[in-house]
Write a structure and sequence with these properties.
The structure holds 2 protein chains of 2 kinds. Chain A is α+β, with helices and mostly antiparallel strands. Chain A has helices at about 40-50, 90-100, 105-120, 135-150, 165-185, 195-200, 220-225, 230-235; strands at about 1-15, 15-25, 30-35, 55-60, 65, 75-80, 155-160, 185-190, 205-210, 210-215, 240-245, 255, 265, 270-280, 285-290, 295-300, 310-315, 320-325. The chains are: A alpha+beta, B mainly alpha. Bound molecules: adenosine-5'-diphosphate and magnesium ion. The site of magnesium ion (MG) has 3 residues of chain A, from helix 1. Chain B: Keywords: Cell membrane, Membrane, Transmembrane, Transmembrane helix, Transport.
Chain lengths: ~325, ~280
Protein backbone atom coordinates (compact mmCIF):
# COMPACT_ATOMS: atom_id res chain seq x y z
CA UNK A 1 0.00 0.00 0.00
CA UNK A 2 1.15 3.55 -0.56
CA UNK A 3 1.73 5.65 2.53
CA UNK A 4 1.15 8.91 0.70
CA UNK A 5 -0.15 9.89 -2.70
CA UNK A 6 -0.19 13.46 -3.94
CA UNK A 7 -2.21 14.04 -7.08
CA UNK A 8 -1.89 17.33 -8.96
CA UNK A 9 -1.43 19.31 -5.77
CA UNK A 10 -1.33 23.09 -6.21
CA UNK A 11 -0.96 25.76 -3.59
CA UNK A 12 -1.23 29.51 -4.02
CA UNK A 13 -0.91 32.26 -1.46
CA UNK A 14 -3.03 34.92 -3.13
CA UNK A 15 -1.26 35.70 -6.38
CA UNK A 16 1.83 33.68 -5.54
CA UNK A 17 1.72 30.19 -7.03
CA UNK A 18 4.00 28.26 -4.69
CA UNK A 19 3.32 24.58 -5.50
CA UNK A 20 2.69 23.58 -9.11
CA UNK A 21 1.08 20.26 -10.05
CA UNK A 22 2.87 18.08 -7.56
CA UNK A 23 2.52 14.31 -8.10
CA UNK A 24 4.39 12.12 -5.63
CA UNK A 25 3.96 8.61 -4.24
CA UNK A 26 5.53 7.36 -1.05
CA UNK A 27 5.50 3.61 -0.49
CA UNK A 28 4.96 2.00 2.89
CA UNK A 29 8.20 2.02 4.89
CA UNK A 30 10.00 4.20 2.42
CA UNK A 31 12.33 7.05 3.38
CA UNK A 32 11.69 9.86 0.94
CA UNK A 33 13.68 13.09 0.94
CA UNK A 34 12.37 16.30 -0.61
CA UNK A 35 15.34 18.37 -1.58
CA UNK A 36 15.63 21.75 -3.23
CA UNK A 37 17.06 25.21 -2.70
CA UNK A 38 15.64 27.51 -0.02
CA UNK A 39 12.28 29.00 -0.90
CA UNK A 40 11.33 26.33 -3.45
CA UNK A 41 8.24 25.32 -1.46
CA UNK A 42 9.44 22.29 0.52
CA UNK A 43 8.00 23.43 3.83
CA UNK A 44 4.78 24.49 2.17
CA UNK A 45 4.45 21.04 0.59
CA UNK A 46 5.07 19.40 3.95
CA UNK A 47 2.46 21.65 5.58
CA UNK A 48 -0.05 20.71 2.90
CA UNK A 49 0.61 17.02 3.60
CA UNK A 50 0.26 17.63 7.34
CA UNK A 51 -2.97 19.57 6.83
CA UNK A 52 -1.60 22.80 8.26
CA UNK A 53 -2.31 24.45 4.90
CA UNK A 54 -5.13 23.54 2.55
CA UNK A 55 -4.14 22.59 -0.96
CA UNK A 56 -5.61 25.07 -3.45
CA UNK A 57 -6.37 22.10 -5.70
CA UNK A 58 -5.40 18.45 -5.95
CA UNK A 59 -5.74 15.43 -3.70
CA UNK A 60 -3.77 14.20 -0.72
CA UNK A 61 -4.15 10.52 0.20
CA UNK A 62 -2.51 9.14 3.33
CA UNK A 63 -2.60 5.37 3.82
CA UNK A 64 -5.20 5.16 1.05
CA UNK A 65 -7.63 7.66 2.60
CA UNK A 66 -8.42 11.03 1.07
CA UNK A 67 -7.46 13.50 3.79
CA UNK A 68 -8.00 16.88 2.12
CA UNK A 69 -10.62 17.74 4.74
CA UNK A 70 -9.11 15.92 7.69
CA UNK A 71 -7.51 18.01 10.47
CA UNK A 72 -3.76 17.45 11.08
CA UNK A 73 -4.24 15.45 14.27
CA UNK A 74 -6.49 12.91 12.53
CA UNK A 75 -4.23 12.28 9.55
CA UNK A 76 -2.03 9.74 11.28
CA UNK A 77 1.05 11.87 10.80
CA UNK A 78 3.64 13.32 13.16
CA UNK A 79 5.85 16.23 12.34
CA UNK A 80 9.27 17.37 13.53
CA UNK A 81 9.83 21.07 13.02
CA UNK A 82 12.97 22.93 12.12
CA UNK A 83 12.82 25.07 15.25
CA UNK A 84 11.95 22.03 17.43
CA UNK A 85 8.76 23.82 18.55
CA UNK A 86 8.76 22.30 22.02
CA UNK A 87 6.15 23.65 24.42
CA UNK A 88 8.24 25.91 26.65
CA UNK A 89 5.98 25.60 29.69
CA UNK A 90 5.86 21.79 29.69
CA UNK A 91 8.60 19.40 30.74
CA UNK A 92 9.98 16.72 28.43
CA UNK A 93 7.54 14.04 29.57
CA UNK A 94 4.54 16.31 29.07
CA UNK A 95 5.87 17.54 25.74
CA UNK A 96 6.04 13.97 24.52
CA UNK A 97 2.73 12.87 26.00
CA UNK A 98 0.51 15.81 25.08
CA UNK A 99 -0.70 14.33 21.80
CA UNK A 100 -1.51 10.99 23.46
CA UNK A 101 -3.43 12.80 26.17
CA UNK A 102 -5.41 14.61 23.48
CA UNK A 103 -6.16 11.22 21.93
CA UNK A 104 -7.47 10.13 25.35
CA UNK A 105 -5.01 7.26 25.64
CA UNK A 106 -4.81 5.56 29.02
CA UNK A 107 -2.07 6.44 31.51
CA UNK A 108 -0.50 3.01 31.08
CA UNK A 109 -0.22 3.38 27.32
CA UNK A 110 1.18 6.90 27.66
CA UNK A 111 3.80 5.84 30.18
CA UNK A 112 4.79 2.83 28.16
CA UNK A 113 5.17 4.70 24.88
CA UNK A 114 7.07 7.60 26.42
CA UNK A 115 9.37 5.16 28.21
CA UNK A 116 10.03 3.30 24.97
CA UNK A 117 10.71 6.44 22.97
CA UNK A 118 12.88 8.06 25.62
CA UNK A 119 14.93 4.86 25.89
CA UNK A 120 15.41 4.81 22.13
CA UNK A 121 16.58 8.43 22.18
CA UNK A 122 18.58 8.37 25.43
CA UNK A 123 16.27 10.87 27.06
CA UNK A 124 15.40 8.86 30.16
CA UNK A 125 17.33 11.15 32.51
CA UNK A 126 15.74 14.30 31.18
CA UNK A 127 12.02 13.62 31.43
CA UNK A 128 11.52 16.13 34.24
CA UNK A 129 13.50 18.93 32.57
CA UNK A 130 12.06 21.87 30.73
CA UNK A 131 13.08 22.63 27.12
CA UNK A 132 15.07 25.69 28.23
CA UNK A 133 17.26 23.38 30.32
CA UNK A 134 18.27 21.19 27.37
CA UNK A 135 20.99 21.49 24.74
CA UNK A 136 20.12 21.86 21.07
CA UNK A 137 20.71 18.20 20.32
CA UNK A 138 18.58 17.10 23.27
CA UNK A 139 15.76 19.39 22.21
CA UNK A 140 15.91 17.89 18.75
CA UNK A 141 15.65 14.40 20.23
CA UNK A 142 12.66 15.45 22.32
CA UNK A 143 11.01 16.77 19.17
CA UNK A 144 11.65 13.43 17.49
CA UNK A 145 10.42 11.60 20.58
CA UNK A 146 7.23 13.60 20.49
CA UNK A 147 6.67 12.28 16.98
CA UNK A 148 7.58 8.67 17.79
CA UNK A 149 5.17 8.23 20.71
CA UNK A 150 2.24 8.83 18.41
CA UNK A 151 3.16 5.82 16.30
CA UNK A 152 2.11 7.63 13.13
CA UNK A 153 1.61 6.15 9.67
CA UNK A 154 3.86 8.84 8.27
CA UNK A 155 6.67 10.90 9.78
CA UNK A 156 7.32 14.39 8.46
CA UNK A 157 10.66 16.05 9.14
CA UNK A 158 11.20 19.68 8.17
CA UNK A 159 14.94 20.38 8.02
CA UNK A 160 15.45 18.79 11.44
CA UNK A 161 19.23 19.13 11.42
CA UNK A 162 19.70 22.67 10.18
CA UNK A 163 20.00 24.16 13.67
CA UNK A 164 22.67 21.71 14.84
CA UNK A 165 26.43 22.04 14.56
CA UNK A 166 28.30 19.88 12.05
CA UNK A 167 29.37 17.05 14.39
CA UNK A 168 25.95 16.75 15.97
CA UNK A 169 24.36 16.86 12.55
CA UNK A 170 26.29 13.80 11.46
CA UNK A 171 25.32 11.87 14.60
CA UNK A 172 21.69 12.83 14.45
CA UNK A 173 21.58 11.91 10.78
CA UNK A 174 22.74 8.41 11.70
CA UNK A 175 20.21 8.28 14.50
CA UNK A 176 17.42 9.17 12.12
CA UNK A 177 18.59 6.48 9.70
CA UNK A 178 18.62 3.96 12.57
CA UNK A 179 15.21 5.13 13.66
CA UNK A 180 13.86 4.45 10.21
CA UNK A 181 15.27 0.93 10.30
CA UNK A 182 13.94 0.26 13.82
CA UNK A 183 10.46 1.64 13.30
CA UNK A 184 10.12 0.55 9.67
CA UNK A 185 7.86 3.57 9.28
CA UNK A 186 7.27 5.74 6.22
CA UNK A 187 9.17 8.97 6.49
CA UNK A 188 9.31 12.19 4.54
CA UNK A 189 12.31 14.33 5.17
CA UNK A 190 12.77 17.84 3.86
CA UNK A 191 16.19 19.41 3.44
CA UNK A 192 18.11 21.82 1.27
CA UNK A 193 21.29 19.85 1.90
CA UNK A 194 22.06 17.38 -0.87
CA UNK A 195 24.40 15.37 1.40
CA UNK A 196 21.53 14.61 3.78
CA UNK A 197 19.38 13.69 0.83
CA UNK A 198 21.95 11.35 -0.70
CA UNK A 199 22.82 9.63 2.58
CA UNK A 200 19.35 9.12 4.00
CA UNK A 201 16.97 8.62 1.12
CA UNK A 202 15.48 5.53 -0.45
CA UNK A 203 13.97 7.95 -2.89
CA UNK A 204 14.74 11.60 -3.58
CA UNK A 205 12.30 14.17 -4.89
CA UNK A 206 14.11 17.18 -6.33
CA UNK A 207 12.05 20.37 -6.22
CA UNK A 208 12.63 23.68 -7.88
CA UNK A 209 10.32 26.71 -7.77
CA UNK A 210 7.43 24.58 -6.58
CA UNK A 211 7.79 22.01 -9.34
CA UNK A 212 9.03 18.43 -9.15
CA UNK A 213 12.14 18.20 -11.31
CA UNK A 214 12.91 14.51 -10.88
CA UNK A 215 12.11 11.56 -8.62
CA UNK A 216 14.33 8.55 -8.12
CA UNK A 217 16.81 6.72 -5.95
CA UNK A 218 19.97 8.69 -5.04
CA UNK A 219 22.11 6.79 -7.53
CA UNK A 220 19.53 7.07 -10.32
CA UNK A 221 19.49 10.82 -9.90
CA UNK A 222 23.24 10.99 -9.60
CA UNK A 223 23.93 8.89 -12.68
CA UNK A 224 20.96 9.91 -14.74
CA UNK A 225 19.84 13.48 -14.05
CA UNK A 226 17.10 14.63 -16.44
CA UNK A 227 18.31 18.19 -16.54
CA UNK A 228 21.07 20.57 -15.68
CA UNK A 229 19.44 21.65 -12.42
CA UNK A 230 19.29 18.15 -10.95
CA UNK A 231 22.78 17.40 -12.23
CA UNK A 232 24.14 20.52 -10.58
CA UNK A 233 22.21 20.14 -7.35
CA UNK A 234 23.27 16.63 -6.39
CA UNK A 235 26.86 15.77 -5.76
CA UNK A 236 29.55 17.68 -3.92
CA UNK A 237 31.52 19.46 -5.22
CA UNK A 238 28.87 20.27 -7.81
CA UNK A 239 29.07 19.17 -11.44
CA UNK A 240 31.09 21.42 -13.76
CA UNK A 241 29.25 23.00 -16.65
CA UNK A 242 30.99 24.48 -19.66
CA UNK A 243 30.09 25.32 -23.24
CA UNK A 244 30.61 22.27 -25.43
CA UNK A 245 32.38 24.63 -27.82
CA UNK A 246 35.44 24.29 -25.58
CA UNK A 247 36.11 20.82 -26.88
CA UNK A 248 34.29 20.63 -30.19
CA UNK A 249 34.07 23.79 -32.24
CA UNK A 250 30.52 25.11 -32.91
CA UNK A 251 28.63 22.80 -30.54
CA UNK A 252 25.84 24.89 -28.92
CA UNK A 253 25.23 22.47 -26.06
CA UNK A 254 26.51 22.55 -22.50
CA UNK A 255 28.78 19.81 -21.22
CA UNK A 256 28.54 18.63 -17.63
CA UNK A 257 31.39 16.73 -16.01
CA UNK A 258 31.52 15.70 -12.38
CA UNK A 259 34.64 16.87 -10.51
CA UNK A 260 35.62 13.29 -9.71
CA UNK A 261 35.54 12.37 -13.42
CA UNK A 262 38.17 14.98 -14.24
CA UNK A 263 41.79 13.88 -14.11
CA UNK A 264 45.21 15.29 -14.87
CA UNK A 265 45.97 14.23 -18.40
CA UNK A 266 48.60 15.75 -20.65
CA UNK A 267 46.49 15.30 -23.80
CA UNK A 268 43.25 16.13 -21.98
CA UNK A 269 42.36 19.12 -24.07
CA UNK A 270 41.17 21.29 -21.18
CA UNK A 271 43.90 23.65 -20.17
CA UNK A 272 43.13 25.66 -17.02
CA UNK A 273 44.80 28.03 -14.58
CA UNK A 274 44.69 26.91 -10.97
CA UNK A 275 43.01 29.46 -8.74
CA UNK A 276 42.80 27.57 -5.51
CA UNK A 277 43.70 24.17 -4.13
CA UNK A 278 41.99 22.40 -1.23
CA UNK A 279 44.14 19.69 0.29
CA UNK A 280 41.80 17.34 2.14
CA UNK A 281 44.30 14.54 2.67
CA UNK A 282 42.34 11.81 0.99
CA UNK A 283 41.33 14.03 -1.90
CA UNK A 284 42.61 17.18 -3.49
CA UNK A 285 40.11 19.67 -4.87
CA UNK A 286 41.53 21.85 -7.62
CA UNK A 287 39.55 24.94 -8.52
CA UNK A 288 40.73 26.25 -11.85
CA UNK A 289 39.64 28.60 -14.61
CA UNK A 290 39.41 27.70 -18.26
CA UNK A 291 38.36 30.40 -20.74
CA UNK A 292 36.40 32.30 -18.09
CA UNK A 293 34.60 29.23 -16.74
CA UNK A 294 35.33 27.88 -13.28
CA UNK A 295 36.10 24.19 -13.16
CA UNK A 296 36.50 22.04 -10.09
CA UNK A 297 38.41 18.79 -10.25
CA UNK A 298 38.45 16.30 -7.44
CA UNK A 299 41.63 14.29 -7.60
CA UNK A 300 42.12 11.18 -5.56
CA UNK A 301 45.07 11.27 -3.20
CA UNK A 302 47.52 14.06 -2.56
CA UNK A 303 48.93 16.22 -5.34
CA UNK A 304 51.52 18.97 -5.26
CA UNK A 305 49.68 21.57 -7.29
CA UNK A 306 50.16 25.28 -6.74
CA UNK A 307 48.04 28.30 -7.27
CA UNK A 308 48.70 30.01 -10.61
CA UNK A 309 49.97 26.83 -12.22
CA UNK A 310 48.49 25.67 -15.52
CA UNK A 311 47.10 22.15 -15.58
CA UNK A 312 45.69 20.06 -18.38
CA UNK A 313 42.52 18.18 -17.47
CA UNK A 314 40.73 15.44 -19.29
CA UNK A 315 37.80 13.06 -18.84
CA UNK A 316 36.44 9.87 -20.32
CA UNK A 317 33.91 10.92 -22.99
CA UNK A 318 31.27 8.51 -21.69
CA UNK A 319 31.32 10.31 -18.33
CA UNK A 320 30.17 13.60 -19.85
CA UNK A 321 26.55 14.81 -19.78
CA UNK A 322 25.11 17.04 -22.47
CA UNK A 323 22.38 19.63 -21.96
CA UNK A 324 20.53 21.77 -24.48
CA UNK A 325 19.82 25.50 -24.18
CA UNK A 326 16.81 24.94 -21.88
CA UNK A 327 18.92 22.77 -19.62
CA UNK A 328 17.33 19.46 -20.69
CA UNK A 329 19.56 16.45 -20.91
CA UNK A 330 20.27 15.41 -24.50
CA UNK B 1 27.37 38.46 33.71
CA UNK B 2 28.18 41.47 31.62
CA UNK B 3 31.17 43.42 32.90
CA UNK B 4 29.67 46.88 32.56
CA UNK B 5 26.80 45.83 34.71
CA UNK B 6 28.98 44.75 37.61
CA UNK B 7 31.18 47.83 37.51
CA UNK B 8 30.60 49.36 41.00
CA UNK B 9 30.55 52.94 39.83
CA UNK B 10 27.93 52.27 37.18
CA UNK B 11 25.98 50.34 39.73
CA UNK B 12 25.95 53.21 42.20
CA UNK B 13 25.07 55.76 39.54
CA UNK B 14 22.25 53.59 38.25
CA UNK B 15 20.80 52.93 41.67
CA UNK B 16 21.25 56.56 42.66
CA UNK B 17 19.23 57.70 39.67
CA UNK B 18 16.53 55.13 40.34
CA UNK B 19 16.33 56.01 44.03
CA UNK B 20 16.08 59.70 43.22
CA UNK B 21 13.30 59.03 40.76
CA UNK B 22 11.50 56.84 43.27
CA UNK B 23 11.71 59.57 45.92
CA UNK B 24 10.30 62.18 43.56
CA UNK B 25 7.52 59.87 42.43
CA UNK B 26 6.60 58.79 45.93
CA UNK B 27 6.75 62.24 47.51
CA UNK B 28 3.14 63.32 46.80
CA UNK B 29 1.87 59.94 47.96
CA UNK B 30 3.91 60.29 51.10
CA UNK B 31 2.53 63.77 51.80
CA UNK B 32 -1.03 62.54 51.34
CA UNK B 33 -0.40 59.62 53.67
CA UNK B 34 1.13 61.61 56.55
CA UNK B 35 -1.41 64.37 56.32
CA UNK B 36 -4.29 61.92 56.37
CA UNK B 37 -3.24 61.14 59.95
CA UNK B 38 -3.14 64.80 61.14
CA UNK B 39 -5.62 67.29 62.45
CA UNK B 40 -6.94 69.91 60.07
CA UNK B 41 -4.95 72.67 61.75
CA UNK B 42 -1.72 70.67 61.57
CA UNK B 43 -2.25 69.95 57.88
CA UNK B 44 -2.26 73.65 57.08
CA UNK B 45 0.34 74.78 59.60
CA UNK B 46 3.04 72.27 58.72
CA UNK B 47 2.04 70.18 55.69
CA UNK B 48 5.39 68.37 55.54
CA UNK B 49 5.71 67.45 59.23
CA UNK B 50 5.14 63.91 60.37
CA UNK B 51 2.16 63.44 62.68
CA UNK B 52 3.21 63.64 66.35
CA UNK B 53 1.34 63.15 69.62
CA UNK B 54 -0.25 66.60 69.31
CA UNK B 55 -1.23 66.59 65.68
CA UNK B 56 -2.15 62.90 65.30
CA UNK B 57 -5.80 62.39 64.51
CA UNK B 58 -7.95 59.79 62.83
CA UNK B 59 -10.78 62.25 62.28
CA UNK B 60 -10.46 62.00 58.50
CA UNK B 61 -10.84 58.23 58.47
CA UNK B 62 -13.74 58.43 60.90
CA UNK B 63 -15.54 60.95 58.68
CA UNK B 64 -14.98 58.85 55.62
CA UNK B 65 -16.18 55.64 57.23
CA UNK B 66 -19.28 57.32 58.68
CA UNK B 67 -20.12 59.35 55.64
CA UNK B 68 -22.12 57.59 52.96
CA UNK B 69 -21.43 54.00 52.08
CA UNK B 70 -17.73 54.08 51.69
CA UNK B 71 -17.23 50.33 51.53
CA UNK B 72 -19.88 50.07 48.85
CA UNK B 73 -18.04 52.68 46.75
CA UNK B 74 -14.89 50.72 47.28
CA UNK B 75 -16.55 47.54 46.18
CA UNK B 76 -18.07 49.23 43.13
CA UNK B 77 -14.71 50.60 42.03
CA UNK B 78 -13.09 47.23 42.48
CA UNK B 79 -15.81 45.38 40.58
CA UNK B 80 -15.73 47.86 37.72
CA UNK B 81 -11.95 47.86 37.45
CA UNK B 82 -11.45 44.12 37.70
CA UNK B 83 -14.36 43.27 35.40
CA UNK B 84 -13.27 45.84 32.81
CA UNK B 85 -9.68 44.59 32.89
CA UNK B 86 -10.91 41.02 32.54
CA UNK B 87 -13.00 41.82 29.47
CA UNK B 88 -10.32 44.05 27.92
CA UNK B 89 -7.76 41.28 28.26
CA UNK B 90 -10.09 38.49 27.16
CA UNK B 91 -11.61 40.18 24.11
CA UNK B 92 -8.44 42.08 23.29
CA UNK B 93 -6.40 38.88 23.28
CA UNK B 94 -9.00 37.02 21.24
CA UNK B 95 -9.19 39.74 18.59
CA UNK B 96 -5.41 40.02 18.58
CA UNK B 97 -5.08 36.27 18.07
CA UNK B 98 -7.50 36.30 15.15
CA UNK B 99 -5.67 39.21 13.53
CA UNK B 100 -2.24 37.72 14.10
CA UNK B 101 -3.02 34.11 13.28
CA UNK B 102 -5.60 33.87 10.55
CA UNK B 103 -5.44 35.02 6.96
CA UNK B 104 -8.81 36.39 5.92
CA UNK B 105 -10.07 39.12 3.65
CA UNK B 106 -9.90 42.52 5.27
CA UNK B 107 -7.50 41.43 8.00
CA UNK B 108 -5.39 44.58 7.77
CA UNK B 109 -8.44 46.79 7.48
CA UNK B 110 -9.95 45.18 10.55
CA UNK B 111 -6.73 45.73 12.45
CA UNK B 112 -6.70 49.41 11.50
CA UNK B 113 -10.34 49.78 12.43
CA UNK B 114 -9.73 48.24 15.84
CA UNK B 115 -6.71 50.48 16.38
CA UNK B 116 -8.63 53.62 15.46
CA UNK B 117 -9.82 53.96 19.05
CA UNK B 118 -6.26 54.66 20.16
CA UNK B 119 -6.40 58.00 18.39
CA UNK B 120 -9.99 59.01 19.13
CA UNK B 121 -10.83 59.57 22.80
CA UNK B 122 -13.97 57.75 23.83
CA UNK B 123 -15.21 60.79 25.75
CA UNK B 124 -16.08 62.47 22.48
CA UNK B 125 -18.94 60.01 22.25
CA UNK B 126 -20.24 60.64 25.75
CA UNK B 127 -23.60 61.99 24.65
CA UNK B 128 -24.22 59.11 22.28
CA UNK B 129 -23.09 56.64 24.92
CA UNK B 130 -25.45 58.18 27.46
CA UNK B 131 -28.33 57.96 24.98
CA UNK B 132 -27.53 54.31 24.33
CA UNK B 133 -27.32 53.54 28.02
CA UNK B 134 -30.66 55.26 28.62
CA UNK B 135 -32.22 53.34 25.74
CA UNK B 136 -30.92 50.02 27.05
CA UNK B 137 -31.78 50.85 30.66
CA UNK B 138 -28.18 50.45 31.78
CA UNK B 139 -27.91 53.90 33.37
CA UNK B 140 -26.98 53.66 37.02
CA UNK B 141 -25.70 50.11 36.73
CA UNK B 142 -22.10 48.99 37.03
CA UNK B 143 -22.49 47.31 33.62
CA UNK B 144 -22.67 50.73 32.00
CA UNK B 145 -19.20 51.54 33.34
CA UNK B 146 -17.77 48.10 32.63
CA UNK B 147 -18.92 48.23 29.02
CA UNK B 148 -17.56 51.71 28.43
CA UNK B 149 -14.20 50.95 30.01
CA UNK B 150 -13.92 47.72 28.05
CA UNK B 151 -14.53 49.65 24.84
CA UNK B 152 -12.03 52.26 25.94
CA UNK B 153 -9.30 49.71 26.67
CA UNK B 154 -9.73 47.40 23.68
CA UNK B 155 -7.95 49.37 20.92
CA UNK B 156 -4.61 49.58 22.66
CA UNK B 157 -4.96 46.02 23.97
CA UNK B 158 -5.57 44.64 20.46
CA UNK B 159 -2.72 46.69 19.07
CA UNK B 160 -0.15 45.61 21.66
CA UNK B 161 -1.25 41.99 21.96
CA UNK B 162 -1.45 41.29 18.24
CA UNK B 163 2.10 42.55 17.87
CA UNK B 164 3.24 40.14 20.57
CA UNK B 165 1.21 37.24 19.23
CA UNK B 166 2.79 37.58 15.81
CA UNK B 167 6.08 36.80 17.52
CA UNK B 168 4.90 33.47 18.90
CA UNK B 169 6.51 30.90 16.62
CA UNK B 170 4.30 29.44 13.89
CA UNK B 171 5.98 26.09 14.30
CA UNK B 172 4.86 25.98 17.91
CA UNK B 173 1.23 26.58 17.02
CA UNK B 174 1.48 24.10 14.16
CA UNK B 175 3.03 21.50 16.46
CA UNK B 176 0.05 21.93 18.74
CA UNK B 177 -2.33 21.51 15.81
CA UNK B 178 -0.61 18.29 14.81
CA UNK B 179 -0.83 17.15 18.43
CA UNK B 180 -4.58 17.64 18.33
CA UNK B 181 -5.10 20.81 20.33
CA UNK B 182 -8.13 22.83 19.27
CA UNK B 183 -7.73 26.45 18.25
CA UNK B 184 -9.19 27.42 21.64
CA UNK B 185 -6.69 25.25 23.46
CA UNK B 186 -3.87 26.75 21.41
CA UNK B 187 -5.10 30.21 22.33
CA UNK B 188 -5.67 29.63 26.03
CA UNK B 189 -3.02 27.07 26.87
CA UNK B 190 -0.17 27.96 24.55
CA UNK B 191 -0.33 31.52 23.28
CA UNK B 192 -1.78 33.31 26.31
CA UNK B 193 0.88 32.03 28.72
CA UNK B 194 3.56 33.08 26.25
CA UNK B 195 2.27 36.65 25.92
CA UNK B 196 1.67 37.05 29.65
CA UNK B 197 4.10 39.96 29.98
CA UNK B 198 2.21 41.83 27.28
CA UNK B 199 -1.07 41.07 29.05
CA UNK B 200 0.36 42.50 32.28
CA UNK B 201 1.48 45.61 30.44
CA UNK B 202 -1.97 46.13 29.00
CA UNK B 203 -3.55 45.55 32.41
CA UNK B 204 -1.32 48.11 34.11
CA UNK B 205 -1.92 50.67 31.37
CA UNK B 206 -5.68 50.31 31.69
CA UNK B 207 -6.05 49.92 35.42
CA UNK B 208 -5.13 53.38 36.70
CA UNK B 209 -7.31 55.43 34.30
CA UNK B 210 -10.30 53.24 35.04
CA UNK B 211 -9.80 53.36 38.78
CA UNK B 212 -9.33 57.13 38.79
CA UNK B 213 -12.03 58.02 36.29
CA UNK B 214 -14.60 60.55 37.43
CA UNK B 215 -16.23 61.41 34.12
CA UNK B 216 -18.20 58.30 33.28
CA UNK B 217 -19.29 57.43 36.85
CA UNK B 218 -20.60 60.98 37.19
CA UNK B 219 -22.54 60.77 33.93
CA UNK B 220 -23.55 57.14 33.64
CA UNK B 221 -23.83 55.88 37.21
CA UNK B 222 -24.19 58.69 39.75
CA UNK B 223 -26.76 56.81 41.87
CA UNK B 224 -25.83 56.15 45.48
CA UNK B 225 -25.62 52.37 45.07
CA UNK B 226 -23.39 52.51 41.97
CA UNK B 227 -21.06 55.32 43.00
CA UNK B 228 -17.38 54.56 42.55
CA UNK B 229 -14.72 55.59 45.02
CA UNK B 230 -13.61 58.63 43.06
CA UNK B 231 -17.16 59.85 42.73
CA UNK B 232 -17.97 59.05 46.35
CA UNK B 233 -14.98 61.07 47.55
CA UNK B 234 -16.32 64.15 45.78
CA UNK B 235 -18.78 64.79 48.59
CA UNK B 236 -15.87 65.98 50.72
CA UNK B 237 -14.79 68.53 48.14
CA UNK B 238 -17.20 71.43 48.42
CA UNK B 239 -17.38 74.61 46.43
CA UNK B 240 -16.63 76.65 49.57
CA UNK B 241 -15.29 74.27 52.20
CA UNK B 242 -13.34 71.14 51.56
CA UNK B 243 -12.96 68.53 54.28
CA UNK B 244 -9.25 67.92 53.67
CA UNK B 245 -8.96 65.29 56.39
CA UNK B 246 -11.62 63.23 54.74
CA UNK B 247 -10.30 63.76 51.20
CA UNK B 248 -6.77 62.75 52.16
CA UNK B 249 -7.99 59.72 54.09
CA UNK B 250 -10.20 58.64 51.21
CA UNK B 251 -7.31 59.03 48.79
CA UNK B 252 -4.97 57.07 51.04
CA UNK B 253 -7.40 54.20 51.20
CA UNK B 254 -8.00 54.35 47.47
CA UNK B 255 -4.33 53.69 46.81
CA UNK B 256 -4.35 50.30 48.49
CA UNK B 257 -6.29 48.12 46.04
CA UNK B 258 -4.48 49.60 43.04
CA UNK B 259 -1.23 48.84 44.78
CA UNK B 260 -2.24 45.23 45.30
CA UNK B 261 -3.34 44.82 41.67
CA UNK B 262 -0.17 46.47 40.47
CA UNK B 263 2.02 44.15 42.50
CA UNK B 264 0.21 41.15 41.02
CA UNK B 265 0.60 42.35 37.43
CA UNK B 266 4.15 43.62 37.74
CA UNK B 267 5.32 40.29 39.11
CA UNK B 268 3.95 38.68 35.97
CA UNK B 269 5.67 41.33 33.96
CA UNK B 270 9.08 40.72 35.48
CA UNK B 271 8.72 36.95 35.43
CA UNK B 272 7.77 37.11 31.76
CA UNK B 273 10.69 39.33 30.89
CA UNK B 274 13.30 37.17 32.59
CA UNK B 275 11.91 33.86 31.35
CA UNK B 276 12.09 35.25 27.84
CA UNK B 277 15.68 36.33 28.36
CA UNK B 278 17.08 32.94 29.31
CA UNK B 279 15.27 31.01 26.60
N1 LIG C 1 2.03 32.06 4.45
C1 LIG C 1 2.61 32.44 3.30
N2 LIG C 1 2.13 33.50 2.61
C2 LIG C 1 2.70 33.89 1.45
N3 LIG C 1 3.76 33.29 0.89
C3 LIG C 1 4.28 32.23 1.53
C4 LIG C 1 3.74 31.75 2.77
N4 LIG C 1 4.48 30.68 3.17
C5 LIG C 1 5.42 30.51 2.23
N5 LIG C 1 5.31 31.43 1.25
C6 LIG C 1 6.17 31.53 0.04
O1 LIG C 1 6.28 30.27 -0.53
C7 LIG C 1 7.58 30.03 -1.00
C8 LIG C 1 8.08 28.71 -0.46
O2 LIG C 1 8.28 28.79 0.92
P1 LIG C 1 8.74 27.55 1.77
O3 LIG C 1 7.82 26.43 1.54
O4 LIG C 1 8.90 27.99 3.18
O5 LIG C 1 10.17 27.25 1.14
P2 LIG C 1 11.30 26.24 1.65
O6 LIG C 1 10.81 25.52 2.86
O7 LIG C 1 11.55 25.35 0.48
O8 LIG C 1 12.50 27.08 1.93
C9 LIG C 1 8.43 31.21 -0.57
O9 LIG C 1 8.65 32.00 -1.70
C10 LIG C 1 7.58 31.93 0.42
O10 LIG C 1 7.76 33.32 0.30
MG1 LIG D 1 11.53 25.51 4.86
Amino acid sequence: MTALTLTNVNKSFGEVHVLKDINIEVEEGEFVVFVGPSGCGKSTLLRVIAGLEDATSGEVHIGGDLVNNTPPSKRGIAMVFQSYALYPHLNVFKNMSLALKQEKQSKAVINERVAKASKMLNLEDYLERYPSELSGGQRQRVAIGRAIVREPKLFLFDEPLSNLDAALRMNTRLEIANLHDTLAASMIYVTHDQTEAMTLADKIVVLRDGRVEQIGSPMELYNNPVNQFVAGFLGSPAMNFMPAGFVSEGDPRTIGVRPEDLRLQDDGGLSATVQHVEHLGGDTNVIAEAKGTQITARLFGQHAINQGQTVTLGYAPERAYYFDKEGHRV
Amino acid sequence: MNKARTNPFNNIAMHGALILYTLIALFPVFVILINSFKTRKAIFREPLALPDADSFSLIGYQTVLKQGDFFLYFQNSLIVTVASLFFVLLFGAMAAFALAEYRFKGNTLMGLYLALGIMIPIRIGTVAILEMMVATGLVNTLWALILVYTAQGLPLAVFILSEFMRQVSDDLKNAARVDGLSEYAIFFRLVLPLVRPAMATVAVFNMIPIWNDLWFPLILAPAEETKTLTLGSQVFIGQFVTDWNAVLSALSMAILPVLVLYVIFSRQLIRGLTSGAVK
